[in-house]
Design brief:
Elements lengths: L1 E6 L14 H18 L3 E4 L10 H13 L3 E8 L6 E5 L7 H17 L3 E6 L4 H5 L3 E9 L3 H10 L1 H12 L22 E6 L2 E2 L3 E2 L2 E2 L14 E7 L2 E7 L3 E2 L16 E2 L4 E8 L4 H4 L2 E9 L8 E2 L2 E2 L14 E10 L1
Parallel strand pairs: 1-2, 1-3, 3-6, 4-5
Antiparallel strand pairs: 4-6, 7-8, 7-9, 7-11, 9-10, 11-14, 12-13, 12-15, 16-17, 16-19, 17-18
The protein binds zinc ion.
The site of zinc ion has 5 residues, from loops.
């Protein structure tokens, strides 16, 4: 098969940048992909624009070089930005239900899997020069996000050659050729956190994330009665506001047997909870945050907090509304 490949943007018309530089990464992947496809016996036209070309000449040039090559398939390599995470592949609506959509789906799944990032899948776009102008079936690969730490870590761990291999696997299959495909560095799992609450004078069984080790099958700590103490095991701190004393000091320990220093509370009903996770080794785990939520007696859970941010956009920095809390849960996520 004849395939046209380009790296998006140029140094003169730069793409997105933050933790990763789009042009530097897309050129590295493009170079590896050209080599990989040739090594698997395919004819490849590198239709990347020249470094000096500014917008929109660079886009016109990619398209005209691809069209002049007579390729049956066009692949443009980009990196995404805007706050998401993972891989997506764009195709023209005219390719819906056909090869364009199939290639987009396959490449997105293959790259996301190799990176260990979310597969955002195939997406239709009708406003992109590359997809609108090319005369062959074409896709635009958004490998990962330049502005997300998890994507940066995955890109650096996996590397451009293995990403190119994943694209080649999805597009043409066959065995890996010139470019070695190293085993992807395993993305470490998000750690578990443990916590317990005391309600009605008894400590309830320990929770691990949203699993109740007491076998009750529920996904939160609480038995319907007001929570009097909270004990949590994670690097960072937690803090409660009680009916009797207001906000108590931050707690860094986890010891339900020590009501003074090993947990948060004073025996009266808890009204608000704050938690803050301190990532210990961001290079190996990525930045982590704690998600948690509370429910008042007889009520459902409020919106989740992430560290000190209310994910509902409410703007407060604690879980609760001043009512009496009877249920609590927490778990970790990557920032
Ligand atoms: Zn781009």
């Amino acid at each position: 098969m004849k395939i046209a490949v380009n790296g998006g943007h140029t140094p003169t018309s730069p793409g997105a940048g933050m933790y990763l530089d789009e042009v530097a990464c897309d050129r590295a992947i493009k170079d590896a992909l050209v080599a990989e496809l040739r090594a698997r016996g395919h004819e490849v036209a590198d239709c990347t624009a020249d470094d000096w070309m500014a917008y929109p000449l660079e886009l016109n040039t990619q398209v005209s070089r691809a069209n002049a090559s007579g390729a049956e398939l066009g692949i443009s390599i980009h990196l995404n930005a805007g706050g998401g995470t993972g891989t997506e592949v764009l195709y023209h609506p005219a390719g819906a239900g056909g090869w364009g959509q199939q290639v987009a789906q396959d490449v997105s799944a293959a790259v996301a899997s190799r990176l260990g990032l979310p597969n955002r899948g195939a997406k239709q776009r009708s406003d992109l020069w590359w997809l609108n102008g090319t005369s062959m079936t074409a896709v635009l690969v958004e490998v990962c996000f330049v502005d997300h730490r998890a994507d940066e870590a995955a890109y650096n761990a996996v590397g451009p050659a293995a990403i190119a291999c994943a694209i080649a696997d999805a597009v043409v299959g066959g065995s890996a050729g010139a470019t070695p495909a190293p085993e992807p560095a395993p993305v470490p799992a998000v750690p578990d956190i443990r916590y317990r609450v005391r309600a009605g004078g008894v400590w309830l069984p320990e929770m691990v994330d949203r699993t109740d080790t007491g076998g009750s099958g529920d996904t939160y700590a609480g038995n319907g009665q007001p929570i009097e103490y909270l004990a949590m095991d994670f690097p960072g701190w937690y803090q409660v506001c009680t009916e009797k004393s207001g906000w108590l000091p931050k707690v860094y320990a986890y010891n339900p047997d020590d009501l003074e220093n090993g947990c948060a509370g004073d025996g009266s009903p808890i009204k608000y909870v704050r938690c803050y996770y301190e990532t210990q080794d961001p290079d190996s785990t990525g930045w982590l945050r704690i998600r948690y939520a509370v429910a008042n007696v007889g009520c459902g859970f409020f919106a989740e907090m992430e560290d000190l941010t209310d994910l509902s956009g409410y703007g407060d920095d604690a879980a609760g509304n001043g009512g009496t809390i009877s249920a609590f849960y927490a778990y970790l996520v990557r920032a």
